[in-house]
Amino acid sequence: MAFDGITIANLTKDFNDYLTGGRIYKIAQTESDELFITVKLSYENTEKYNMKQCKLVLSADASLPLVYITDETKQSPMTAPNFCMLLRKHIQNGRIISITQPCGLERIIRFEIEHLDEMGDLRHKVLLIEIMGKYSNIIFTDEDDIIIDSIKHIPASVSSVREVLPGRKYFIPSQDKANPLSTSADEFSSCVLSKGMPLFKAIYSSYTGISPIMAQEICLRSHIDADKSAISLDTKESISVYKAFDELMETIRNGNFHPSIIYENSVPKEYSSIPLSIYGEDLSGADSVQTNDSNLINSESSDQNSYSCEYIDSISSLIQQYYAEKNVVTRIRQKSVDLRKIVQTALERNVRKYDLQLKQMKDSEKKEKYRIYGELLTVYGYNAAPFADKITVNDYNTGKDVTIPLDPTLTANQNAKKYFDKYTKLKRTAEALNDQLKESKEAIEQLESIQTSLEIAQKEADLLQIRQELIDSGYIKSHFTGKNGKREKVTSKPFHYQSSDGFDIYVGKNNIQNDELTFKTANGGDWWFHAKKIPGSHVVLITGGKEVPDRAFEEAAALAAYYSKGKVQEKVEIDYVMRKEVKKPNGAKPGFMVYYTNYSMSISPDISSLKLISD
Taking Cα atoms as reference points, which of 72, 70, 81, 55 lies closest to residue 140? Predict the structure, then answer.
């Protein structure tokens, strides 16, 4: 989700609730484009929210501009930058008298601050933050909108549209877009319904602060295809889409926000200040949503991606949680790049080797023919003419004639010996290939399972276990054994879910955990699940000596399907068996088990009904 005007409206409402009447206590410029402002709350808000101060983060970072209230602290530089010193001079100890979002849903927040100047006279200053992607900025002006300074200077050589320099007049750059909060049905028809483009595109390109996702949401609420041309709508459809648009704007005007994060397969995908029905949120109950951290809504798309919605108590908390979780996913992905490359290279090498070994094994199937040639030449070789290049004899095994190629420079007995030598060589090759094929196949299976483990890794400790397995298997050279020659302690634990009936279900994140989970955590009477003939996690359903209902079996099987290579399939076949039936052969690679009797079921990899228990 873009940091759109609706998100800004939600932030502005929250900032007004908390910060209006508060005094600016500290100002720090923690990054070249970020301010960290501590605000002492007014007496009324201190009593109301049971807190004395708030910390406000204003970031104009080009890649990720953000604004939010936080409880965290951040280290300030030893020497404050000039812009920070200027703000301290003018507005430190100033009182925030208003926080507004100008021009409808513009991605701008305007803080008006009252302070005393050097002469003791009351003055007003304005601090603005513009959330506009790479053009984001923090601008400080006087009461007449003359720019005093900005955190980023934009000269005419950089932007011909607007200079942002001290002494210049501040104005909002025109986007030729209308204010969605004050539009009428006629204006909506003129702005949107006269355009020959997809309806959702016509909406977000006509109004400020409307993102493409929100435009699609409006189309869905009006039950009109978002890709349908706006100009082709009939009267009934036009009324329907305007009604959905106006109802959404009324929600924003009333400040009726319900911040939520949408998760796709447990990974944060979108966030919004209002419920999004396109991801299955229940709009009918939005007004009665309670503030909590529960997954309230679950849905499933046609491509088997599972969506869940988590409502957050404030938009500031949402922003911190969403981007923190997104950063974790991105950081783990980046940190696992080297491991992914090592695994992929080793896998490709082993697949090529396996294919070559299969070809050699097929060639070795000729060995029986060479043995028979040798035996027949031993018996009938005396009939061969001198210097003949072939001989036809009757095979006493089948009763059919067989033509045997001969080396004319050798005698019949020498030709027989030559065929026996070929037979012996191919026999030894086949015997060696049997072991080599087994080793190559096991290596491929292990590397494919490691690839699956890398996909579900969520913490650096998870990657550490995977790296250790690669070291133990010889794919990575060990250059460091840890402190005092011991391995570094790993804190990674299996996923812990709870079934609808209250049974604990554990899922191994990698092969090392799979072994520990199966043979140390689980008892013989517990149930063990695994995707049939494809890489995946070991899943253990802890019975606690109780009778397990069918629903718990299905939920454990769904976890085995979800945490496997087959998670993108509509259905995955799962083997399940009592843990006591699972054995680990001597010398087997990590995560490799055998079982000889089992039950099976075909299940969808949907785990939206399951509750993940924190570590």
Answer: 81
Q: In the 8-state DSSP scheme, what is residue 596?
A: S
- Tell me how far apart the alpha carbons of residues 86 and 80 are, in angstroms, rounded to a whole number: 10
Say what the pLDDT of residue 479 is: 61
Distance CA 315, CA 292 (A): 13
The predicted pLDDT at position 283 comes to 56
Beta-bridge mates of residue 542: none
- pLDDT for the residue numbered 78: 85
Q: How many residues does the chain have?
A: 615
Q: Domain limits of the chain?
A: 5-150, 180-253, 260-335, 341-452, 457-485, 495-613
The pTM assigned to this predicted structure is 0.61
Confidence (pLDDT) at 242? 96
For the record, the structure tokens of 65 come out as: 């501009």
Query: What angle in degrees, to the nearest 10, is found between the helix axes of 315-335 and 460-472?
Result: 10
Q: What letter would DSSP give residue 396? A: T
Q: Which residues pair with 34 in a beta bridge?
A: 31, 59
Predicted confidence at residue 245, as pLDDT, reads 96
CB-based contact 277:220 (threshold 8 Å) = yes
SS3 label, residue 258: coil
DSSP result, 92-129: TT-EEEEEE--TTT-SEEEEEEEEE-TTS-EEEEEEEE
- pLDDT, residue 290, reads 36
Cα(319)–Cα(66) distance, rounded to whole angstroms? 8
| Cα–chain center distance at 239 | 39
Strand 23-31 to 34-40 pairing:
antiparallel
How many other β-carbons are positioned within 10 Å of the β-carbon of residue 399? 7
Structure tokens at 531: 């995707």
Cα(471)–Cα(526) distance, integer angstroms: 32
Structural domain 5-150, CATH architecture: Roll (2.30)
pLDDT at 594: 92
Give the residue among 586, 462, 595 at the shortest CA–CA distance from 528. Answer: 595
Q: What is the 3-state secondary structure (H, E, C) of 80-96?
A: CCHHHHHHHHHHCCCEE
For every residue of 448-489, which 3-state class applies, written as one string? HHHHHHHHHCCCHHHHHHHHHHHHHCCCCCCCCCCHHHCCCC
Dist CA 615 CA 613 (whole Å): 7
Query: Which tokens is 335 given?
Result: 């940190």
- Counting as low any pLDDT under 70, the low residues of the chain are 1-2, 265-266, 280-306, 327-331, 479-491, 614-615
- Identify whether the C-beta of residue 109 lies closer than 8 Å to the C-beta of residue 67: yes
Question: Could you tell me how many helices (H) and strands (E) the chain has, helices first?
Answer: 14, 22
Structure tokens, 318: 């949402």
CA distance 362 to 230: 64
Query: The tokens of 454 are what?
Result: 């890398």
Residues 6+ apart with CB under 8 A from 357: 433, 436, 437, 440
Question: What pLDDT score was predicted for residue 279?
Answer: 79
DSSP per-residue codes, 318-366: HHHHHHHHHHHHHHHHHHTHHHHHHHHHHHHHHHHHHHHHHHHHHHHTT
Widest Cα–Cα separation across the chain: 129
Q: Is the dihedral of CA 557, 263, 494, 564 positive or negative?
A: positive
Residue 590 region by backbone torsions, left for phi larger than 0, else alpha for psi between -120 and 50, else beta: beta
> Distance (Å, rounded) from C-alpha 172 to C-alpha 162?
9
CATH domain 180-253 topology = Helicase, Ruva Protein; domain 3 (1.10.8)
Q: In what helix (H) or strand (E) does residue 265 lie, and over which residues does it extend?
A: none
Q: Are strands 122-130 and 137-142 parallel, antiparallel or unpaired?
A: antiparallel
